Fold this sequence. Notes:
Elements (H helix, E strand, L loop, with lengths): L2 H13 L8 H16 L8 E5 L5 H10 L4 E6 L11 H10 L6 E5 L15 E7 L8 H11 L3 E9 L9 H15 L14 H10 L2 E9 L6 H13 L2 H5 L3 H17 L10 E8 L12
Parallel strand pairs: 1-2, 1-4, 2-3, 4-5
Antiparallel strand pairs: 5-7, 6-7
Helix pairs in contact: 1-2, 1-3, 2-3, 6-8, 6-10, 8-10
Amino acid sequence: MNHPDLLTKAPSLAAGMAAADHSPDIQLxxxxxxxxxxxxxxxxxxSTVLELGCGQGDMTAVLAEAVGPEGRVxxxxxAAPSYGAPVTIGxxxxxxxxxxxxxxxxxxxxxxxxxxSVDFPESTFDHVVLAHCSWYFTSLGQLRDTLTRVRxxxxxxxxxxxxxxxxxxxxxxxxxxxxIQGQTEAAGSHGEGNVRTPFSREGLLRLLPEAGWTAxxxxxVDTEELQDGDWEIAACLDLVGSDExxxxxxxxxxxxxxxxxDVLRAIAKPHGNRALAAYSVTARRHATPAAGxxxxx
Length: 297
């Protein structure tokens, strides 16, 4: 399936998402973004894909369309089906499962691939995908361990995340909101937001060899239509408005966060803040001697 085909199908894919009942325009822009990503990857019809951090299934739906009726997407998330608002990830998965893409998707919530009970035979999957989920990890060490864990299971890695390097001044509010959340988490005040361990593209490229992957290339990804800048600014201001979260911080860090929040309020617009750009990295696994047979479940 080529780029025009996936983008042409984006409206119908978006309409099949449960979140489209609440915000159809937002869902369409999110689906278009993921359709453009997958169209730039080499995921052929009939492929098997392991998606980590599937969340609401925005990327899952696009991947399921790309692999076609003979393909399969195993969509994994550590969160419980009750996580998410205004639509839970379980509700969103149920809508997808009941639609035409349902037979191609295997949702597995409450699943941590670092759990020894979660296993797959070597080369079960053609591809493993992480799309806008890696900042949710509790540490870079956890991400490295996860990428190491899945390496025998898939031949290729497709990875995309926000780029910490702003391309223009109107992205600074999104950047500052991300950094404040990251600092708060790093200082020991933990929440349930989407930003827990923000890291740079260069940080990822340093980490991949440690996890057994060789990067083939990296490219910028347009995010002009996306609303994540507004969402993360709102999440950040909610965080600094929480006495409980701030009380858990060492006093010097608390004062630093409060001062940065003052700057954020000064530079952020009420809405329409431009999101940071994103990047996409492709990688292949290092060649290693084959391990003994491992069976699932």
